[in-house]
Amino acid sequence: MTTLAPERSAISRRRFLYATTAAFAGAGVLAASWPLFDQMNPDAAVRAVGGTVSVDLTELRPGERRAISWHGVPIFIVRRTAEILAAMQDKTFVARLVDPDSERMQQPAYAKNWHRSIDPAYAVLVGICTYCRCVPQYLTDAGLGMAGGYICPCCASHYDPAGRAYSAIARYNLPVPPYVIENASTLLIGKNAFGESFRLDAVEQL
Predict the structure, then answer these.
(1) Is 178 exposed, middle or buried (0-12, 13-18, 19+ CB in 10 A)?
(2) Closest CA to 158 of 88, 68, 71, 98
(3) DSSP 8-state code for residue 59
(4) Entry pTM
(5) How many CA atoms lie within 13 A of 97 on its CB side?
(6) Same structural domain for residues 143 and 158?
(7) pLDDT tens-digit map of 127-164
(8) Same domain for 120 and 19
(9) Are 75 and 140 members of one domain?
(10) Which of 3, 72, 196, 206 has the fewest Cβ atoms within 10 Å of its own Cβ atom?
């Protein structure tokens, strides 16, 4: 029977401990990452209706944001208040916007207006910063210098409640996905309004 020298035995034990620690660390990272991967996958509602997802507008309170996943893309739906809409049209604020008239191809034709939506009361935006691709945080107070909006936690880019970029370094507005408001209570993401054929991959910067 062969006996390992004390030095070789200690090295073997250290290697075993390192390998075991690395294995547990790898499993921990995978476990921590899985909820993110799972969240970004198309949810059951999207798969069930062949690429579209329905949102019940009656569940949204004034000023409230709802986030859903559509084909692995985070989508923000916000019910904007009269105060928010008024602040979005303030001339002093509009002068600070990077692309106030939505000249860049970041939205379908039916959302190329000052509120960047079909109905001014409801914002529908892709929740991905157009500079660094982090998910912006939604703020409901005047912390952004106006009545709410979005701020990227990674690059500090600011977007107003219509997803229009201002301040910091983002040079593109948040994209607007294809969607339609079917009735007073239902919004359908993934279907175009007014016979348009807009696709999200047509935007200049996602």
Answers:
(1) buried
(2) 98
(3) G
(4) 0.75
(5) 27
(6) yes
(7) 999 999 999 999 877 555 667 899 999 999 999 999 99
(8) no
(9) yes
(10) 3
